[in-house]
Amino acid sequence: MKGTPKRxxxxxxxxxxxxxFCRIVRGELPAEKVYEDDRYIAFLDIxxxxxxxxxxxxxxxxxxxxxxxxxxxxxxxxxxSEVSKAVVEATGADGFRFVQNxxxxxxxxxxxxxxxxxxxxxxxxxxxxxxxxxxxxxLAETAKKIRESLARN
Length: 153
Ligand code: AMP
Ligand code: ZN
Description:
- It is a single chain.
- By secondary structure, the chain is of the alpha+beta class.
- The chain has helices spanning 20-25, 70-91, 136-152, and strands at residues 33-36, 40-44, 54-58, 95-99, 115-120.
- The chain has a single domain, classed as HIT-like (HIT family, subunit A).
- The chain is built from three helices and five strands.
- Strands 1-2-3-5-4 form a five-stranded antiparallel beta sheet.
- It is globular and about 40 Å long.
- The termini are far apart.
- The relative contact order is 0.22.
- The model has no long low-confidence stretch (mean pLDDT 96).
- It binds adenosine monophosphate (AMP) and zinc ion.
- Zinc ion (ZN) is lined by residues 16, 19, 21-22, 61, 112.
């Protein structure tokens, strides 16, 4: 099935040289990376909804899922699925959510495709999640656990 190409408005649109996630991919900005291969990268969200909240992105710049071909969309979600197993194991969560925002209306603030992997504990069930304030040390500790889990499996 081939959809009609259409642009989604996003005032956060930027060229790859200014894009925050491209800059993380290029190593120009720091990030708590948990996974990387030649095409995908996963790192902790700096303003997480839960401990272990991870973003999985294609390394190639594209703004929304419509900028990716079907094969790459499949690979992105397969990568996110593998990362989710490590995120859940490392955090002791009981479930997780994938969130993938496209366009400003959907609250996409970083205009580079990404899948949020948000681990959720049973006691958080049904609650509105607020952004946590975590220290760099807490983020580093969580990232280390996720990397270790990925290395084991
Ligand atoms: P979205 O609303 O789907 O565009 O989400 C973008 C996410 O990127 C937000 O949850 C931000 O907290 C997160 N974010 C923004 N800048 C960075 C950064 N430099 N490193 C890690 N996460 C970031
Ligand atoms: Zn980018």
